[in-house]
Amino acid sequence: MFKNNQNELADKPKSWGDLDKEVAIFMGWLLGLLLAIFGTKVLITYAWGLFIGIPFVSGALTGALLNRRQTRTVGETARAAMASQMWTGIVLLLLGIEGLICLAMALPLALPLAILGGLTGRMLAKKNERPLPPQLAAGIGLLPLIMVAEYLAHPQPPVHPVTTSIIIDAPVDRVWKNVITFPELAPPTEMIFRTGIAYPTSATIVGTGPGAVRYCHFTTGDFVEPITTWDVNHLLAFSVSKQPEAMREMSPWKIVPAHIEHNYFRSQHGQFRLQPIDASHTLLEGTTWYQDYFWPQQYWNVISDQIVHRIHLRVLKHVKQQAEMGLPRKGDFD
After folding, report:
1. Helices (H), the chain
2. Residue 331 domain-assigned (yes or no)
């Protein structure tokens, strides 16, 4: 008798609750995947619909389907919504549509939105007897239209400045010589540059004065920077006529996502400003003006600013090291 009970338990099919959970997660990540492909491969637009709309709507679909037969806990709904979002990212990675680093950057934005969407779907499911609440059906149908509208509007992001400074224990004329051109930099120790993000390795200049061309060599290629202001010992300003890829994505495949291919991070111009503090100390400021074609700007600019600061610091510290090399230091004559 006990053996027969064991066989009956082994043959027992999954409960409706288990099936609902699997279906909910599957449908959520499938919707997210299809809309993400539509946004990145067809429209090539990385805006509100992609980063805000998709996580919320796919999470809402997961939450509604999960709670259609019985009301689940908030925690269970949130976990299912996050799972659907994670699976969307995993499949995008495995299909070679996006890389690991860009997906990781989007995750802190996507997961809370997926949870919020899941809880919204749970609430709608409790108020409706239909398998798919009409409000959710309308949202799913409306989101692609919003993404198309963003594509047609083609919004232009503002030009955003980032300034980083350092004090160098060297006279201003010595610092100037190491700003206009500098030798090979040591390999980076910062973790951020081990993820594939491009970083500077050296710089050369052809000519002098306005009209000269500075070449800042990065791991992915060269920034070509025609000089616009050549104020010796004070200001070196330049525009950017050509730039390399912003990064090499981490992926099982060799990929160049659309936002990298089309340079959705665009450096517009930059400058080095030198301010003598006294006869043997100089304040060196590096500024980059860039456009970031990702929305919401408030989120992505925080990430971009930190990357630009790290690039600035790598160059400024190298200039400091070169300018101070061979100079007597405080305490040498004590």
Report:
1. 2-11, 16-37, 48, 54-66, 74-94, 100-127, 134-153, 172-180, 258-261, 297-324
2. no
User: Do 78 and 127 lie in a common domain?
Assistant: yes
Q: What is the pLDDT along the chain (334 residues), one digit of tens a residue?
A: 434 444 443 444 455 557 789 999 999 999 999 999 999 999 999 999 999 999 999 999 999 999 988 899 999 999 999 999 999 999 999 999 999 999 999 999 999 999 999 999 999 998 876 678 889 999 999 999 999 999 999 999 999 999 999 999 999 999 999 999 888 999 999 999 999 999 999 999 999 999 999 999 999 999 999 999 999 999 999 999 999 999 999 999 999 999 999 999 999 999 999 999 999 999 999 999 999 999 999 999 999 999 999 999 999 999 999 999 866 655 443 4
Is pTM beyond 0.85? Reply is: yes
**Domain shared by 196 and 314, yes or no:** yes
296 preceded by a cis bond (ω within 30 of 0): yes
Residue 55 belongs to domain spanning: 10-153
What is the distance between the alpha carbons of residues 334 and 324, in angstroms, rounded to a whole number?
19
Give the total number of structural domains in the chain. 2
